[in-house]
Every structure is written in C-alpha cells, then in structure tokens.
C-alpha cells in the first residue's frame, strides 16, 4: 500500500477572497501624495515573489500560467473558472494577451519601432499628477441643477436644448454580432485580438472591422480630452482593438479600472504603442489575478463534487451520525452488555468524516478513487463525443459564444441541458481522474484531517455512552 504524501496536518485551504472594490494600482499610487508609482512596482514585485496561504508551490500562479500543471488546474481550467464561475475572465484574457504582445514587441526587428518610445515612470507620474489636478478642479465646481420638464419644453428646438447623447461605438461593438472573418480568434477565449498586419505578414483580415475599432479608440481618446494618435506607429491596429475591447467605457470586456487609471493608460497609448504604456493596467490586472482569482480557483478546484453531490454527502453524514446516536441510546437503555455500546463509534467516524469533508467541498467516495465530477460545461462536450459531428458543433458553439465579443455564456446549449438534468443524474454525474498530483495531495491531507477529527469525536461520544448505567428496559 502506497504511503500518502501529505501536507502538514494543520494545513488550511485558501480562504475565499472577495472581489476588491479598489484596484491595486490605485491603492499603490494613493500611498504617495506626489503621485509616485514606484511603490506600486515594488508591491507588484512582492506579489510575484510571495505565495498565497494554502497553495503549495506546484500550484502557484506562475506555475499554472507557464503550463506546468495538469487537469483540473491548467490555464484552460483557470479560464473556464473565470468565465463560468467568477465571471471575470477578461482579466486573464488581457494578461495572457499582454504577455504575448510584450514578447512579440521585444522580438520585432522593424524600423518603425523607433516611433514607439518607452512610456517612462516619470511620464506616468506626470500624467497622474495632471489628472489629479483636473479632478480636484472639477470637484470644486458646483454641479448644475437638472432642468425641469416645463423649462425643457420651452427650450425645445432652440440652441439651449440639452443634446441627446448618441450611443458610443463601444456599445455598438458590444451589441453588434462580429462576422466569422472578424472573429479571427476562432472562438477561443485565449486569443483576444488578432496580431497586427506587420506580424501576420498580410493585410488585416477585415478592413471594416479595423475601421470600427479605430473609430472606437478615437472616441475613447476624445472623451479623455486627447487627440487621435499617429496610425503609423507599430501595433497600432492591435492596440485599437484592445482599447475598444478592454479599456474604454462600455466595452464588451471592460476591465475594472478606476477613472484615473483609464485616463492614464489612454494618455500613454496616445503617446506610444510600447508595452510600457499598459503598465498601469497590467499592474491592476495581475494583482487581481494573483491575490483574488488564483486563490479562489485553487479553493474551488479542491472540491471534487458538484454542489448537488456535496449536499447529498452532507445529508448522508448527518444521517449517519443521527442513526449511530439513536443506536447508542437504544443500546444504553437495553440490557445489552456495555461493550456493544462502542459499536456506534464506527458510524460516528464515518458520519463525522463525511460531514467534515463535505463541508470543505469534498465527497469521500469520489476521493477514495481520486475522481472528480465533470464540470457542467465539460459534461455535454463529453456526451457529444459519440457523435461524429462533435467537432463541427463545438466550433459553432464557440463562434456563437463570442459573437458579441463578451464572455457571456447564458445562451450556450449546455446551460439548458444541465438545468433539465434530473437530480439523481446530477448526484451520480460522470467522473474523471484527477491528474494533478499537488491537488490530490491537498485532498489527501483534508481527508486525513477529517478522519482524525472523526476519531476524536467518536472517542468522546463512546466515552460518554459506555460508562452510563444500563436501563434494562428491554
């Protein structure tokens, strides 16, 4: 029998981290009155070098991103978690794109790179200080009162009538289906923007789409009080799509940026297309991924059963404890020898261990096999493998899920299918083997902790019932 390779018995799984209300880069820049961002860079370095509690090194954020983990802890699983559970996949999508963009920019050997100088920290500090000053001046201006309906009716048709704001280009992008040609990422949530023409070696796949994103980017610059940048800069087409997809207000995958961060990054992108222009956004996104999304993903991955199965396991645990207690009471009231009163301890051990493990999201039966339930979004893909048209249907489903450019999944076929699935089938859903050794090690440790706690509880209850005098009622 193989010896379990356990973590320390005082191990605790990662705590649930709530979504931060203020972005990390905003906090770091607020720590200094003169707008210095050096502290933000230092804090980011400490985030990268540090490790979250309850997460072993093989499951660290960097290890997952570099592809050094097995299912269910791969980058694909991380992305699925952010899409279907946490609903914040735009952070990881942007982060992965930026890593690839930075690598391609540094490896490029074209002469037009001289048109994209670095956005230095001094420039960033100056931009932050200027935006702070503008915000302070606006705060001192008394807001105007709203016009009454009677006055609005009088002013109707005159030059003083309040103009009706037209929908932004970003709203149009978010609500207008993208053609299959424009969706050059092939429906893959990892492939956010297509590469620029100079990288691909041919023209942009759809000039109309390129014009749309350029218009949206110019609108974002105009709303920030900036002039449209030079279009001859390298990677400008790609960054226009990034602005229209992630940065500007109302974009389909809008990042959780403060107003100050948004204006700073737009000023930087108006000046250059160098990767350093996105420093503010990357700092905020990476901090959120490392400090909030990654610990929650590991905590969620520890659960080997779906919610229905875990609830069923809890009920079984409570039921087993109750039946064992009733049996101990009956044996105490009977004329049976005292030794028989220790038999319910077996049920107490099983019941308490099952209940404690279920409290941490684990089913002991699945754990005994080192299995986990197939996720709902994976379940019907597996079911369709028997159909020879599975590959074609999967491509159609991927295209439909990204028609609007957003990460919405409510219209995906598996949602309705899983809702119609009966309760018994959900409890005994399809299982797969857990391939990641570090995750199995965490689950083994939690199981042993549950057993130890169960033995302590069972020993205490047995010590109570065995010494009691018999009732001799029957």
Q: How is this structure best described in words?
A:
With 474 residues, the chain is an all-alpha fold. It is 57% helix and 1% strand. The chain has helices at 24-30, 38-49, 61-65, 75-86, 89-107, 121-140, 149-155, 169-175, 197-200, 207-223, 236-247, 259-271, 279-302, 307-333, 344-359, 364-368, 376-383, 390-401, 413-420, 423-427, 437-465, and strands spanning 371-373, 431-433. A two-stranded antiparallel ribbon has the order 1-2. Helix 2 runs parallel beside helix 13 and helix 10 crosses helix 11. The longest helix is centred in the C-terminal third of the chain and has 29 residues, at 437-465. The protein starts with 23 loop residues before the first helix and ends in a 9-residue tail after the last helix. Mean pLDDT is 79; it is low at 27-47, 175-186, 196-205 and 383-404. This is RGS domain-containing protein.
């Amino acid at each position: 029998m193989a010896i379990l390779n356990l973590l320390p018995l005082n191990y605790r799984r990662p705590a649930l981290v709530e979504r931060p209300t203020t972005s990390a880069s905003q906090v770091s820049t607020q720590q200094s009155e003169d707008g210095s961002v050096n502290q933000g860079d230092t804090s980011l370095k400490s985030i990268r070098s540090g490790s979250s509690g309850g997460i072993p090194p093989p499951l660290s954020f960097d290890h997952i991103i570099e592809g050094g983990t097995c299912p269910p802890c791969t980058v694909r699983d991380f992305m699925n978690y952010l899409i279907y559970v946490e609903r914040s996949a735009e952070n990881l999508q942007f982060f992965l794109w930026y890593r690839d963009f930075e690598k391609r920019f540094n490896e490029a050997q074209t002469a037009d790179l001289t048109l994209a100088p670095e956005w230095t920290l001094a420039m960033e500090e100056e931009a932050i200080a200027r935006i702070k000053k503008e915000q302070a001046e606006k705060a001192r201006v008394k807001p105007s009162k709203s016009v009454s309906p009677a006055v609005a009716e009088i002013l109707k048709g005159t030059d003083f009538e309040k103009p009706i704001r037209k929908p932004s280009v970003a709203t149009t992008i978010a609500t207008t289906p993208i053609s299959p040609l424009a969706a050059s990422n092939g429906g893959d949530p990892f492939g956010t923007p297509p590469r620029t023409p100079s990288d691909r070696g041919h023209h942009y796949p759809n000039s109309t789409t390129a014009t749309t994103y350029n218009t949206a980017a110019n609108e974002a610059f105009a709303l920030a009080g900036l002039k449209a940048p030079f279009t001859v800069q390298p990677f400008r087409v790609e960054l226009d799509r990034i602005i229209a997809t992630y940065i500007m207000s109302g974009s389909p995958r809008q990042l959780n940026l403060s107003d100050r961060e948004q204006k700073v990054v737009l000023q930087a992108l108006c000046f250059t297309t160098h990767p350093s222009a996105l420093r503010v956004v990357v700092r905020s996104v990476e901090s959120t991924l490392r400090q909030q999304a990654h610990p929650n993903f590991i905590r969620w991955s520890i659960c080997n059963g779906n919610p229905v199965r875990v609830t069923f396991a809890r009920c079984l645990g409570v039921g087993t404890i109750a039946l064992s207690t009733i049996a101990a009471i009956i044996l105490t009231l009977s004329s049976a020898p005292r030794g028989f009163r220790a038999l319910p301890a077996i049920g107490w051990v099983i019941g308490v261990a099952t209940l404690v493990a279920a409290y941490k999201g684990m089913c002991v039966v699945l754990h005994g096999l080192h299995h986990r339930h197939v996720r709902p979004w994976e379940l019907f893909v597996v079911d369709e493998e028997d159909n020879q048209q599975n590959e074609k249907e999967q491509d159609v489903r991927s295209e439909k899920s990204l028609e609007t450019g957003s990460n919405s999944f409510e219209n995906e076929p598996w949602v309705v299918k899983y809702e119609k699935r009966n309760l018994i089938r959900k409890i005994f859903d399809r299982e797969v083997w857990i391939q990641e050794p570090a995750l199995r090690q965490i689950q083994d440790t939690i199981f042993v902790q549950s057993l130890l706690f169960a033995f302590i509880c069972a020993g205490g209850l047995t010590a109570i019932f065995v010494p009691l005098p018999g009732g001799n009622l029957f």
